[in-house]
Each structure stands twice: as structure tokens, then as C-alpha cells.
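User: Second chain of the day. Same drill as before.
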Amino acid sequence: MSLAAVSGGVTHRRVLAIALPMTLAHLTTPMLGVVDAAVVGRLGSASLLGGVALAAIIFDMLFWVFGFLRMGTVGLAAQAVGRRDAVEERAVLARGLLVAGALGLLIVLLRTPIESAALSLAGASEEVNAAVRDYYAIRIFAAPFTLANYVVLGWLVGLGRTGRALVLQLGINVLNMVLSAALVLGAGWGVAGSAAGTLVAEIVGAAAGLVLCAVLLGGRLGVAKTVLLDKARLIQTVMLNRDIMIRTAALMFAFSFFAAQGARAGDVTLAANAILQNMVMVAAYFLDGFATAAEQICGSAVGARRRADFSAGVRLSIVWGFAFAVLAGAVYLITGPAIVDAMSTSPEVRAEARIYLLYAALLPVAGVTAYAFDGVYIGALWSRDMRNLMLASLGVYLGVFLALRPLGNHGLWLAMLAFLLARGGFQALRLPALERRTFG
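Assistant: Same format as last time:
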């Protein structure tokens, strides 16, 4: 019997039933960066704030390269739901956890060269690098647990269990924020306290996630070896994960390139950009909730061969995404200065952030179609096309940056706007051909 909790038909209510819980769950993730920035920002040092921001971006880049563990799991589980294949629903979770554990241990073993490469690419000041090293030395050991949490979250979403996914993600992130604040300000651990809070929260979250999965599966997480190692499924999983990994690496390169250019402009610009990026990420996670709805709805529609449901999922995820993006942009235009002041006590950082505040308001609107179509492509398992279109968009991003480089930080922000618009535009143009290929 299938474990899926999915109602029939695609309506506004169904989209919101998936998107809103996941929006709340996703929203707490960038809030970790906001809390870290606010807590460390209270120490009054631009170098410490810039160091924590840069370290967080390094881990985002490192872990999000393995975002296929969540995204691929959603698509595979959702399509199994559409086919009503209960055995494969279980196998998707088991394969994902196996891969997550292996990759997490590999990251830990390679922690020294990863740190050296990241700091070399960032090109920040020595003061910022010192803060990064303190943070990195602790948080790197969270890798196996973080990747396992990706798999569990993706599996729950793919099965339509977004309420349970929300509770699990909220628990991890709230615990992280509480521990970080307590260890940095209460215990006086500084940057190390922020990293330690994240490590403990990821360990607790992984344990809780495994217990939750075991309960849903009647106490058994394992599957038959023949099912787990099914050749066709393994090839599909490897190819899917490869394409999503390349796509995610390109995406994270774009964000890390953004951070590196800010670092080269000085500690104040780096800190200001970090504050604004955190604001943008808060809005982006609203959009990611609707992308998640598209992943589940479009994936199950492909599995069940329901073209009408697929089209409705695409349309409604974009409509609701635009509504939330416009709202977020308006909020930032009105309350942005107050948000900046709350996140830093440095007058220089506050003044610098205000100069570029408009971009933080525009980016969510520019990114609506990019996020929505990411969800559609992931659910439909169109990973090769998503990979290729992301690489093309990255070329647009770098080209615009080079053309606008004389504009300094303004040119950097404009290049990011162009990147988001290109992602959504390219995917929209490709969609009709892929839909005909999939549904006939």
C-alpha cells in the first residue's frame, strides 16, 4: 500500500496545501543566516560579520552541490506515487540515504583541501579568513547529517507529507537558531558558537528524521537487496543525480562568484552584500515553496500520465509565485532600512547596504519563473535539459558582469538580475517541446 498523502486534482487549495508548509520550512533556512548575521553583527566587527557570511556561503556552495539528494528524491518519489508503486517509494529513500552517508563521509575526509580551495577562491582579507576558519573547523563535521536530512525531506515532500516535512525542518532550524544565539552571545564562543549550534542541530535532525521515516514505514527502513540494487533504477538515479549536481554546482558558482566579488571590494561591501543576500534568500524561499509544490504535483502527474494536472501545476505555481514575489518586493522597499539596521551596528555597513537595497526588492520578482520551472523540471525528471539551460544562463550572467564591470557593485547586482531572468526565460521556451515528448 502506498504511503502517499496526495489528493486528486490540481486546485489552488492543493497547491497551497503543499506550498505553504514548505514555504514556512524553507523560510527558516535563510533565517539561520539572518540570525547568524544578526548575532555576530552585534559584536560590532565588519570582519567577523563578513567571515560568518562568507563561511555560510562556502557551506551553501558545498552542500547545495549535493542538492540532488533532495531534489532527485522528490522527483523519484513523486513519480512512484503517481504510478502507485509502494515498493519503489521505499527504495527511493533507502538509495538516497546510502548515497548521502557515503558522500558526507567523503566531504569530512577531504575537509582540508576543500577549505584551502574555498579560501583561495574567495580572496577575502586575513581578518575575514580567520573567522571563516574558526567556523569551518566545526561545522564541516555536520556533512553526513546535513545530506541525510536532504534525503528525508525530499522523500517526505515527494510523498506529499509536507506537514511532517515542515515539523522536521522547523525543528532543525529553530534548534539551530536558539543554540547559535546562546553559544555566541550567552556562552561567549563567538564565531565557533554559531558553527557548533548548526552541527548539533543537524545531528538531532537526522536522528529525528530517521525515526519519523521508520514510523511511516512500520518500523523498517530497509528494502530487499534486489530492489535496492535494481540496475535500471540505479542508472536512472545516477544520471539524474549527475545532471542535477552539475546544475546545482553552476548555480552555487554564480552565488559564490557574487560573494567573492563583494569580498574583493572590501569588508564593508562584503558585509553589506551579505545582509542584502540574506534578505533576498528569505524571499527566495517563499518562491521555493511553490517550486516544491510544482515538484510534487508535476512529478506525480508525469507518473500517472495526467497532462491536464501537469499543466495546471505549472500554471498555478507561477501565479502564486508572482503574488508572493511582488509582496516581498514591496515589503523590502518599505522596511528595508530598518531590516539593515537590525542586522548590523556598523554605520559603514548600514550606509553601504542602503545603496543597493533596490536590488534586493527586484530580485524576487525577477526569479519567479526560474524557481517555478526548476520545480517543474525536477518533478518531471528533465534533468539533462535543466542542466544545459542552467549552464547557458550562467554564461549570460558572466557576460553581463564583464560588460557592466565598470559599474562596480551595481554591475554585480545587475548581472544577478540578468541571471535569474535568463534561467526562467530559457526554461519557458523549452517547456512545450519537453511536454510533447513526455505526454505525446
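Residues 116 and 133 are 10 Å apart (CA to CA).

User: Great, on to the next one.
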